[in-house]
Amino acid sequence: MNHHGGQIIAGRPSSEGQATFTALDPAKRQALPTAFHEATRNEIHRAATSAAVAFRDYRCRSPQDRAGFLQRIADQIENLGDVLINRAQQETGLPAARLIGERGRTTGQLRLFAQLLIEGSWVDAVIDRPLPQREPLPRPDLRRMLIPMGPVAVFAASNFPLAFSVAGGDTASALAGGNPVIVKAHPGHPGVSELVASCIVAAADATGLPEGVFSLIHGPSHDVGLALVQHPDIKAVAFTGSLRGGRALFDAAMKRPEPIPVHAEMGSTNPLFALPQAVRRRGAAIAQGFVQSMTLGAGQFCTKPGLFIGVHSAELEQLLETVGKQIKALPSMTMLSSGICGAYFSSLTRTKCSEGIRILADWESESNSHTEQHGASTTSKAAALVVEARRFLKLPQLHEEIFGPASIFVICRSKQELEEVAECLQGQLTATIHHEGDDLKQFDGLVPLLQERVGRLIFNGYPTGVEVCHAMQHGGPYPATTEARSTSVGSAAIARFVRPICFQNCPASSLPPELQDDNPRAIWRRIDGQLTRDPV
Amino acid sequence: MNHHGGQIIAGRPSSEGQATFTALDPAKRQALPTAFHEATRNEIHRAATSAAVAFRDYRCRSPQDRAGFLQRIADQIENLGDVLINRAQQETGLPAARLIGERGRTTGQLRLFAQLLIEGSWVDAVIDRPLPQREPLPRPDLRRMLIPMGPVAVFAASNFPLAFSVAGGDTASALAGGNPVIVKAHPGHPGVSELVASCIVAAADATGLPEGVFSLIHGPSHDVGLALVQHPDIKAVAFTGSLRGGRALFDAAMKRPEPIPVHAEMGSTNPLFALPQAVRRRGAAIAQGFVQSMTLGAGQFCTKPGLFIGVHSAELEQLLETVGKQIKALPSMTMLSSGICGAYFSSLTRTKCSEGIRILADWESESNSHTEQHGASTTSKAAALVVEARRFLKLPQLHEEIFGPASIFVICRSKQELEEVAECLQGQLTATIHHEGDDLKQFDGLVPLLQERVGRLIFNGYPTGVEVCHAMQHGGPYPATTEARSTSVGSAAIARFVRPICFQNCPASSLPPELQDDNPRAIWRRIDGQLTRDPV
After folding, report:
1. Which of A316, A536, B72, B271 is deepest in the core (most CB within 10 A)?
2. Which of B340, B356, B147, B170 has its CA nearest to residue B265?
3. Rounded distance, CA B8 to CA B175, Å?
4. Is-contact A67 A117, C-beta < 8 A?
5. Which residues of B are part of the catalytic machinery?
6. How many CB atoms lie within 10 A of CB A205?
7. Are A290 and A282 a contacting pair, CB within 8 Å?
8. Which residue is closest to B456 within chain A, CA to CA?
9. Least CA distance to B499: which residue of chain A?
């Protein structure tokens, strides 16, 4: 498959700029053909204004039309077959099985939102009937529902080239909500991005949607992303990536003359608390499960458990020993890019130099100072570090995410110390508790403390593996995200890109179907405070 | 009733600082007794940390406990009787009848949220049952609901000394959501603030809640508000007031190491479109209704219709003439404070000096340059200005809110010009359309254009009078608010101060009642995508 390497603006390739870059194969450490063009200011402007024009049309399309569009995108992605998987493998180094699974997740997400649209109740229709006789003043007829906000800028993630990228959850939920989307492709997989973008363009064409409903722009430099976020036609931003990147876009969006919401998912350390009876009864299994979870996808998941917290005991020491052995036995792993690999080594090195850190299993033990030898390396190994809770509490640098297959094991000397660790945690996407017997009763302060700090609380499991469903919450207090009230996974993700409007005494002919008396879409509505599917 | 004039921090009066101010009677233009103390940094810190401590307890209280608290606050406010109304009249110059109505609205709001808590379905419980046999991986048990965010800073408004002040909608919805509240009192009515705060303190005491659940701080200077917003224990902000004030708090909150949501309602011009057939058939009635709405409460409502847009015709000229006559016939009005009155005159003067503005009815026509003669005046009169649409489109200063009883009448020469005016509007709390016959068909672009720009769209009515109910949306795109996805009036206002959490494979003993299998609170829940009140 040939790539044109340009932006795709309102359905058409565009390569105005001189600056180009290539995709790199992290496994072979070599550049892939095709030069991709960085978007110019003018291209960004055209993408944004086309989206604003398309919004006028797209926002009025029926749920069936939007659902058909999403389904068609899923079909098109599947039709690409091995071409997509092969290119994704080349650009990311991720194994084919994983990418095939991720493709299923991506098309599943698109179809989940299509279903949501067809069912229709997500618009949260609320009707308060008029009270014309009320004294001193009558109550008018008031009807409220969710409507789209306008063009959304989506920043693709490096670590999910399909499910959190061009046609990933952010794009699916924004399009489902009735908003045009401009994706800023991740420079790590521009070819995959172009392939998937062409699916969206084809689907828009096949379903008769305006071309501006979707655009794709490229740009390894921060300027492209900032220019997109600063464009007045952009009305919301979704981002998955690093704290630094997310915060920079957030700051730019907040400084706009018209600030816009930024839903940035920036990862976290995802602490796992292994309580004493669980460690006693299932120490070896927890060790194995934890190592699997922290090294899955070379630790390049935002839900990677980066912290393990336990109470000192002989069994915990044994668990740590098992962890150490398992990690040492793991083969080396190809990371997504040399940049990510380099950042992993830097964070790890910084962390290892912290006072009081004990190395349980580490890279350097086998091949010394690999970092310096291979500046452009993409090969990492897992690492496990141990620290006493007393020290952990004093070293804020240990509370930061290490993106890659490394975790810190925090040893507490008392229940109180364990609660202090829980209390000092920043906002997290997830926290996990392993418990057996009356562990939860013994540590009854833990669940409330963690609830205040996390988006998802997992019991006797592992945080990696984020189910796409209605009940999922993939989000959490800052710095896990910039908006704890939203989720970027699951059907509730649509809520990020819609806002309520209230119609007062609106004539039937101007009311959207969702608010009409006879409830033509047969959706659930709250009428005078009561949920019902009955007509008014 | 004696006032102590201090802050109320976690139930106790506190007057640490030296800086004091007094309340002013705008009708008599004289200072009222009692010196009120501006909060010190230390007092702000104590209020915030007390709130954080109280949060641990308050967030776990049952809905019945929280509902009882809100009901008790309402009872206490009613028990104050005339003392409250008299002081409010003294401090604001608003008529007793209006204040009695506003008190009813305030206690009604508190009781609405109490009802919402007791009914319970607002927590948006979503349950996806496990699929242990699913291939390739089982689905875990996932359960999601809304939980409180932490201490909320509420900035009281000047223009609603009860309903948008100490125990107003922001406080009621934040407390209902399970969050402690710190109110920054409006310096325009510190005595009323102290009275109402004492009701909340008494209610917390009577219902056995932690003292830190509520504090009141005073401070006419911006520093007090900024220090409160910047305090790390504050997790959300609600504000009603000016664009400048709201934006300053928003900017401060966004620059925090941990940014927090700011729900600032900053008013708007609330355009009213009078379409030709409506003007023909009901011109005089529209003139009268509009003048009443724009001058209600001396024009000091965030929903005051500040723009009137019509298409040139003989009937429109007649309507304008009627408006002019009615406005000239109105008596002068006491504004809330000399500061607000002064700002009104300044905006009005600036607007009048714009090129192409015709004065339909105005203050100066009767008593020339009142502004200069009475710098500390609190007495205003209504004003109406007329401008051609062509000019309006070119003068951004005419698109800004004038807080007070003045409106601009924009004359369009064509349907296209009217749509251009709609298109150039900034974000609005409301827009209104007056229509008759096939007006809406003739102007079929108008409803979609306005939908993109407003929180509430009113037909054949007036924007003042914001119903407190489930379907209300009191919000809108920037600059009407800093968060178009939220409302500050109605039961949905609670959504501002809560966020979702997901429990994965959580043992029954650790699940909140709302998510337990047998649905002990009998609330509506979405189980595997279906709304039901059945057990799991």
Report:
1. B271
2. B170
3. 17
4. yes
5. 265, 302
6. 12
7. no
8. A502
9. A485
Q: Which fold has domain B271-459?
A: Aldehyde Dehydrogenase; Chain A, domain 2 (3.40.309)
Tell if the CB–CB gap between B529 and A470 is shorter than 8 Å. Answer: yes
Contact in structure between A158 and A508 (CB atoms under 8 Å): no
Indicate the residue type of A117: L
Q: What is the pLDDT of residue B363?
A: 65
Smallest Cβ–Cβ distance between B501 and the set A147, A440, A451 belongs to A451
DSSP notation for B11-54: TEEE---S-EE--EETTTTEE-S-PEEPPPHHHHHHHHHHHHHH
Taking CB atoms and an 8 Å limit, are B483 and A531 in contact across chains? no
Taking an 8 Å cut-off on Cβ atoms, the answer to whether A454 and B529 are in contact is no
pTM, full prediction:
0.97
3-state secondary structure of B346: helix
The CATH superfamily of A36-140+154-266+487-495 is Aldehyde Dehydrogenase; Chain A, domain 1 (3.40.605.10)
B128: nearest Cα among B534, B530, B519: B530
* Residues whose CB is less than 8 angstroms from the CB of residue B248 and which lie 6 or more positions away in sequence, other chains included: B222, B226
Instruction: Please report the sign of the dihedral spanned by the C-alpha atoms of residue B78, residue B82, residue B85, residue B91.
Output: negative
Number of C-beta neighbours around residue B196 at 10 A? 31
Q: What is the pLDDT of residue A136?
A: 85
A residues 492-521 lying closer than 8 A (beta carbon) to B: 492, 495, 498-507, 509-510
Q: Tell me if chain A has a CB within 8 Å of the CB of B268.
A: no
User: Which residue has tokens 């109304």?
Assistant: B85
Tens digit of each residue's pLDDT, chain B (536 residues): 689 999 999 999 999 999 999 999 999 999 999 999 999 999 999 999 999 999 999 999 999 999 999 999 999 999 999 999 999 999 999 999 999 999 999 999 999 999 999 999 999 999 999 999 998 899 999 999 999 999 999 999 999 999 999 999 999 999 999 999 999 999 999 999 999 999 999 999 999 999 999 999 999 999 999 999 999 999 999 999 999 999 999 999 999 999 999 999 998 999 999 999 999 999 999 999 999 999 999 999 999 999 999 999 999 999 999 999 999 999 999 999 999 999 999 999 999 999 999 999 886 544 444 444 445 789 999 999 999 999 999 999 999 999 999 999 999 999 999 999 999 999 999 999 999 999 999 999 999 999 999 999 999 999 999 999 999 999 999 999 999 999 999 999 999 999 999 999 999 999 999 999 999 999 999 999 999 999 99
Burial class (CB in 10 A: 0-12, 13-18, 19+), A258: middle
Q: Is A270 left (phi over 0), alpha (psi -120 to 50) or beta?
A: left
Find, among B59, B240, B242, B61, the residue nearest to B154 by Cα. B240
Domain range B8-15+43-266+487-495, CATH architecture: 3-Layer(aba) Sandwich (3.40)
What's the CA gap between A164 and A102, in Å, rounded?
9
pLDDT digits (tens, 9 = 90+) for A4-51: 999 999 999 999 999 999 999 999 999 999 999 999 999 999 999 999
Residues 6+ apart with CB under 8 A from B435: A507, B275, B277, B278, B443, B459, B460
Q: How is chain A split into domains, by residue range? A: 36-140+154-266+487-495, 271-459
The H or E element spanning position A318 is: helix A314-329
Beta-sheet pairing, A24-25 with A20-21: unpaired
3-state secondary structure B101-150: HHHHHHHHHHHHHHHHHHHCHHHCEEEECCECCCCCCCECCEEEEEEECC
Concatenate the DSSP letters of all residues of B437-450 into one string: TTHHHHTTTHHHHH
Residues 6+ apart with CB under 8 A from A226: A248, A249, A252
- Rg of chain B over Cα atoms, rounded to whole angstroms, equals 25
Model confidence at A2, pLDDT cuts 50, 70, 90, reads: confident
- A276's CB contacts (< 8 A; 6+ apart) are A310, A311, A313, A315, A439, A442
